[in-house]
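Hi F.,

I've been meaning to write this up properly since the lab meeting, where we talked about keeping a consistent format for the predictions we share between groups. The idea is simple: the sequence comes first, exactly as it goes in, then the structure tokens exactly as they come out, then a line or two of notes. No screenshots and no reformatting. I'm using this chain as the first example so we have something concrete to point to.
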Amino acid sequence: MSGKKLSFTEAKTLSIIDYLASAGFQPVKIIRADHWYYSPFREERTPSFKVNAKLNLWYDHGTGEGGTLIDLGAKLKQCSLAEFVERLSQDVHSFSFHRQPPLIIPQENKLEILAVQELNSDDLLQYLSGRRIMPDTAKKFCKEIAFRIRDKAYKAVGFQNRSGAWELRNHWFKGSSAPKDISIITDGSKKLGVLEGFMDFLSLIQSDNQELNALRDNSDFLILNSLRLLSRAIPLLQNRDVNLLLDNDNAASEAKKALIDKGVAFKDASGLYLSHKDLNDFIVSDYKNKMTQSLSKTKPVKLRR
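Output, unedited:
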């Protein structure tokens, strides 16, 4: 293949394990076809980056991302897929890759969970109030999380995923602890509501909209926490009465197409809040409208003299 530009198909057949070795990364352990590495994208003590030699695919358990050699190379090199394939074509004749320094998040920038307790912080409850989430609803499903980044400690509203890590939110911070994963709230129902984030889930729980209530009642819930984790959810959507309450944006539209391609049947409920970005935005806007109407009705009438 010397001197010839690789096609995407040809590039995908090249060994990810060999590519990583050429870049200076060696597996920490090998279990049958699975080669486990310390992630090339961050520092960590436990290897969470897996390459399946048989499938020639990689998966990062810390972020929920994965794919082929092209996806990995483009992420490492911070370039487009096409640009990486072009770079790969220049080196593949010797299969000697020049090492690109990995994108390492310094140890001091890592997010560390310090404590988990009941949600009582006035600042966090005020933040939730601004999102029109009532304290009783939040306290039922969320915790108050103390966490540290570098040498500074902070607090956030925490919503736990199925792997035990936390989605974290406060006035200024939107992030998560590792590993990133979906969240599941189940009571054994065949009916399943699927939402992108936990603010949308909390909004649905306390909604007084009749159509939304019909979707909520007697339902299990799956919160993706990121559309990137949709592939993890697909096995859980089979043979369920699925109601999608995703955002009204292009990414959600692509997710719906992906579900259709996978043969997943669902009811798209996003039309109930079509003029809004997401379900929480709809709840906030609805509250403001009701407050405006209420103030209008109680406005004193000036008497003529």
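Notes:
The chain has a mean pLDDT of 86.
Residues 111-177 form one domain.

If this format works for you, I'll send the rest the same way.

G.
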